[in-house]
Amino acid sequence: SNPSLLILPGDGIGPEVMAEVRKIIDWFSAKRDLQFDVSEDLVGGAAYDKHGVPLADETMAKAQEVDAVLLGAVGGPKYDDLDFSVKPERGLLRLRKEMDLYSNLRPAQCFDALADFSSLKKDVVAGLDIMIVRELTSGVYFGEPRGIFEEGNERVGINTQRYTESEIERVARSAFELAMRRNKKLCSMEKANVMESGILWREVVTRVGKDYPEVELSHMYADNGAMQLVRAPKQFDVILTDNLFGDILSDCAAMLTGSLGMLPSASLGAPMANGRPKALYEPVHGSAPDIAGQGKANPIACILSFAMALRYSFDQGAEADRLEAAIEKVLADGVRTADLLAEEGVQPVSTSEMGDAIVAALDAS
Ligand code: NAI
Ligand code: MG
């Protein structure tokens, strides 16, 4: 049977960028004979409007069954005053929690045509292609005890950094598997010099590494890692780190490469019966209410998220390469949505024109 894909466009620009992904999916089905069982459903504010909840139980059940979920974005001003329990982002959080997506993949990839967008010198980032693997379901954002407590005559705010061996082991394994599919180089970042969880992290990662003797493993203190990311990012291939450091390092790495409209992500969980991980793919950006409904959104982040699905859920690495090359070609030709405009006098294309240009580049590939 065909691989299955659940599409959740969501709110704001989510449906606009997802319409362009649909064109790409149709192209692969017509021209490469790659068929997917695609179903579509509601999430976020759109689901709240219909069901009174940001993710219906039936949608959750479907997400658990498919090979991959592709999500647009959720949220918007219309929903800002809703009760916390039904806010749009709760739909996304429910997906991540119930699918137990502990491994968050954030690529930082620099398309040559956009190297001028980087906050760094062009030669530092040209050709950059690194992947940050961030632990997503544990660590200091979840550890107990947490809270604001009375202590003597003042209050104290407490969070707890806490990692079990099995939590470290499963995300490490996912990072090593990724390194095996890429350039067999992995750098693990923590602060083993000052944190107990960092000592355990380094020990467990080293132990898991014994199962992957081909992967060149190194360790770095996360603060040095932040410096190195900005000084010489091309020294890295896969970076593995915890939830807190990963939050910061992945945002930092993202800005090495430019616009929010270009950044995809994947969140992976435990392997399913077919051996592939549970997976949710989504652009890093939100629903962009300031430009929603105007045809201005850049669909590339969402299209690159589908490329990640091709690579990591559907075992179609060569087709993912083809799609990324088509995007590279379109950018090299100077096609730009408004968020990518640098040069004077260049006219921006619309969301749908960008999708059409990528399909045309695929046709020429
Ligand atoms: P945002 O990412 O939606 O927008 C930030 C800025 O980047 C805006 O100026 C927007 O126009 C621009 N932008 C974002 N994506 C773009 C694209 N594809 N093409 C061109 N420009 C793009 O973040 P913001 O404004 O903080 O949040 C807006 C709403 O989105 C809120 O309701 C927020 O809760 C939600 N949100 C949802 C996320 C998700 O679904 N994963 C992630 C972040 C925010
Ligand atoms: Mg962040």
From TrEMBL:
Gene: leuB
Annotated positions binding NAD(+): 76-89, 286-298
Cofactor note as given: Binds 1 Mg(2+) or Mn(2+) ion per subunit.
GO MF terms, alphabetically ordered: 3-isopropylmalate dehydrogenase activity; magnesium ion binding; NAD binding
GO BP: L-leucine biosynthetic process
Subunit-structure text: Homodimer.
Name the record gives this protein: 3-isopropylmalate dehydrogenase
Site (Important for catalysis): 141, 191
